[in-house]
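Second attempt. The first submission of Polymerase nucleotidyl transferase domain-containing protein had a stray character pasted in from the spreadsheet, which I only caught after the job came back as garbage. Lesson logged: always re-copy from the clean sequence file. Corrected sequence (291 aa) follows.
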Amino acid sequence: MDPALLDALPHAVQAALARQGATPERIAALVDDRPGDVVMLAGSYATGEANPTSDLDILVLMPGPGARGVPGTTNHPSIFGDSFDGMAGDLMVNIEYVSEEAIAQVQQAVRPATGDGPPDLANLQGLELRLVQRVSTGWPLSNAGRLDEIKKGIDADAVRASAAALSFVDTMSLLADTTVLGSPARELMCRGAAEALLTSGLNAFGRITYGTKHLLSRSAAAARLPGAPALFAQCDKVLFADRLPQEEALPWLLDLTEELFRAFADERCAPGIQALLEPFRPQWAWSGRTF
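This time the job returned cleanly.
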């Protein structure tokens, strides 16, 4: 990577790095990149969502698989590759090494179905969603032209649609669980349903979202959209719906899910979410709602 490219980062990012003694040279010393690699700033520093406790995320896309890493850093391997933690001054830096082929594999999972049947709903999990999110929002630190080419080959809307639909299915499944389970399992399922509902809405109307870290901040941003579904403006109450009596929480959350399902037809949403959900609609007859 080119340390000088760190000097081109937004001033707020540069200031945050400087406060923690994370100089471009210290960061670059943690990265084991080779000719042909694409190195990028990723994660919350790239999206402008970093807070004082955020790690700095560096993603290295490799032309092919291979072992990487700098001595003195700690590895957390995954099915996609190696992910090392190291310190640049007082800042924890995570450097992830992933083959470009992994991106193609994720895109293959969300490819349009062939034939006359309903589209397939890809079972994308956190690692896969994170990879697409990081590449599509990454800030180049080397080989910027190649990164632009890779980004053009990513159908982020298809990934968002799959993530939104899968989280919606999870929402309805967990809400169904609340009708048959006793306390405290019922409240736990209610909280999970609420988080899944917000995650579904955010993937539909915003950026790729996985986990709970940015649910509140992104919901606040989505709530400012004209005519946005009510769940965003009520995200504080939604996330703690498990504190409400079941006879109040269940119908209220079902109201929000029904509204969100209709909103999936909004042109601002990732396209095709309702079609992905079509095969699941008979399973939701228990709710008495129209989906």
